[in-house]
Amino acid sequence: xxxxxxxxxxxxxxxxxxxxxxxxxxxxxxxxxxxxxxxxxxxxxxxxxxxxxxxxxxxxxxxxxxxxxxxxxxxxxxxxxxxxxxxxxxxxxxxxxxxxxxxxxxxxxxxxxxxxxxxxxxxxxxxxxxxxxxxxxxxxxxxxxxxxxxxxxxxxxxxxxxxxxxxxxxxxxxxxxxxxx
Length: 181
Hints:
181 residues, alpha+beta, 3 domains, three-stranded mixed beta sheet, two-stranded antiparallel sheet
C-alpha cells in the first residue's frame, strides 16, 4: 500500500516535470519564431540618437556599426540588446559615455549619448590634434582652430582616437582648459 502511494506520487512529479520541460521547449521555439518576425527586427540604421555635433546621424551610425561589428538588423526581443548597443556606441571615439539605451514601443530604439568635446589643441609631429577634457585624443576631423594650444612639447599619442593621450602633462593641461570653458 505504501509502495503504491509512493509510485503514484513519483508518477505525478514526473508528469509535472515533463509538462514544465515541454512548456520551456515550446516557449523557446515560440521565441525563436518571433525573432524572425519582421515586426521584431529593426535595421541598425533606424536607431535614434543625437550624434556628435559635427557628424550626420547616418555617417555616425555607420561608423558605430563598423567599429563594433554590430549586425545590419537588430532583434528587438534580445534581452541583451541594450547592453550590446551601449557597448557598441561606447567604442566610438567621439562618445564619452552612453547615458541610456531605451527600447520602446513601435520598434523604437534610442541611444542617449554624451559626446566628447575638444578643449585643447596639441601639436605633435607637425600636426595639431585635439583632446577632450580628460585628455582623450580625438579624431583627426576635430576642429582645432579656436582651441587653446598646449604650450609644452608633447610625447606621441599612446593610442588611437578615443583613448587617453598618454602624456600626463597633456592630460593635466586638458583638464585645466576644460575648467576655463
